[in-house]
Amino acid sequence: MVLLGICGSLRKGSLNRLLMGEVFAAWGGDVAEGDIRLPLLDEDLKAEQGLPPGVARLAEQIAAAAAVVLVTPEYNQSMPGTIKNALDWVSLAPGKPWLDKPVAIVSAADGRAGGARAQYALRLAMTPFRPRLLTGPEVAVAHASKEFEGGRLVSDRYRAQVAELAGRLRAEAARGPALPD
Ligand SMILES: Cc1cc2nc3c(=O)[nH]c(=O)nc-3n(C[C@H](O)[C@H](O)[C@H](O)COP(=O)(O)O)c2cc1C
User: Fold this and answer.
1) Where along the chain do its domains lie?
2) 13-24 pLDDT, tens per residue?
3) Pocket lining: 15 vs ligand 1, CB cutoff 6 Å
4) Fold of 3-59+68-174
5) Are 121 and 87 within 8 A, CB to CB?
6) What local confidence, expressed as pLDDT, does residue 129 receive?
7) Helices and strands (DSSP H and E) totals, the chain
8) Residue 144, ligand 1, Cβ within 6 A
């Protein structure tokens, strides 16, 4: 049961990547990170060269994963373009890798809402792909630069939320698809 993590922040010191690490640790099984350093979506590129290899690989990783955690920073009250670009590319891949996939969205942001607005934007953007999106617990780490020490979440409240989220994702993954293929 592989948990695939996709982090919308590309920077080395990303707090969202640290949060992804917390979800990975709580998952307690195999994990992998999807690489969303993809070209900007361009239908001409696809027509001329086919699906970029990174897109095909990401779509395969999503299809093969037992569950996916989307980890989003909040940029200007919405999700980052990195994630939307990846979602749009994957929508052009064959098959329906997201269909019935257990998916959780979490965020870490400097603001007091912890990226909650980015989560809602991302939730809406996921709707066409019909995953099984967890509705809670909402893990939105506010004032995130103060919430990690030594790379780990310090607050018991957030740690408990992450543990519950990972447990619910595992339960969804164990349940299997709503309808057989
Ligand atoms: C372009 C940009 C826009 C941002 N907009 C918001 C915002 O709307 N709300 C917020 O809480 N933080 C905002 N921030 C601050 C981020 O929450 C903060 O930089 C965070 O650490 C980014 O996530 P990362 O550490 O995973 O890279 C913004 C940062 C950038 C670079």
Assistant:
1) 3-59+68-174
2) 999 999 999 999
3) yes
4) Rossmann fold (3.40.50)
5) no
6) 98
7) 6, 8
8) yes
